[in-house]
Amino acid sequence: NAGVTQTPKFQVLKTGQSMTLQCAQDMNHNSMYWYRQDPGMGLRLIYYSASEGTTDKGEVPNGYNVSRLNKREFSLRLESAAPSQTSVYFCASSHIGTGDGYTFGSGTRLTVV
Amino acid sequence: AQSVTQLDSQVPVFEEAPVELRCNYSSSVSVYLFWYVQYPNQGLQLLLKYLSGSTLVKGINGFEAEFNKSQTSFHLRKPSVHISDTAEYFCAVSDPSSNTGKLIFGQGTTLQVKP
After folding, report:
1. Which residues from B are below 8 Å from A when comparing CB atoms?
2. Chain segment A27-37, per-residue pLDDT in tens
């Protein structure tokens, strides 16, 4: 019953450092998504992967890269962190076409100093 | 492009009072509509959804929402709130014909239930 698992839960980076946020789902969903949540701005889509082997930019992709490693795993990489990337990051997965909506992970709270 | 507007950023209400959280969307095509709830320091969980059929949709924890196509609205209601309903609520829309499954979220409404 794990659903969507994100690691780490918390991270503090210095400006210019890099890191990878990990996401894995065990529901056999075909699509996966990375969002960032900032106060008053709701959730904004960073990147998504509609199916294994494909990735596409969302609304706010600058400063990020992604890898769909296999059907289960979708990672988000910050190559050179900036204070503007301080946010809460959520991974989600879904099965396109079912209307079921997303299953979300519990989030990663990232602070860049 | 689709967009979602949640008309209130914060809604304070006393316990056992009714509440309505407002959501409007912009789309000229058919839509799927969702409400999610986020409790403090947690991820988002699905409250209810509208795909088709009856315009009144019932969800978990006593919440319901009404789809109004002419008003392009999907307002969330509860007749009597509890302290435990204090959370942030997000409205979201997607295009059923899309091959991406993307959800577009509103800015969120913080429901503050006071004793």
Report:
1. 4, 6, 9, 32, 34, 36, 42-46, 49, 51, 90, 92, 96, 98-103, 105-108
2. 999 999 999 99
